[in-house]
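chain below, 93 aa
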Amino acid sequence: MKKIWMAAAVVVCATGFAAAQAGPKNCDELKDEIAKKIEANGGVNPVLTIVDKGKEGDGKVVGTCGGGTKSILYEKGGAAAPAPKPAPAKKPS
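prediction:
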């Protein structure tokens, strides 16, 4: 039984070490991943902005990067371009 616990501890430690070696996520890569997920869930033209931590403003924080020094903000985008309104029809004289 002791060997099983030792083996489990080694696996947990090795996994944690590997994750630590990977380092912080690149902000641009993470931004692209988040945009793809939003679009896959029906979001249209998501507006994602990378800002310094603590300067988030009105957007919703959807991720952090740069070792926790940056935040990725999401604001809903509109449709590609709204259709122009048709011109009023001329009344016959």
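Residues 2-22 form the longest helix (21 residues). The chain has two helices and three strands.
thats it, cya
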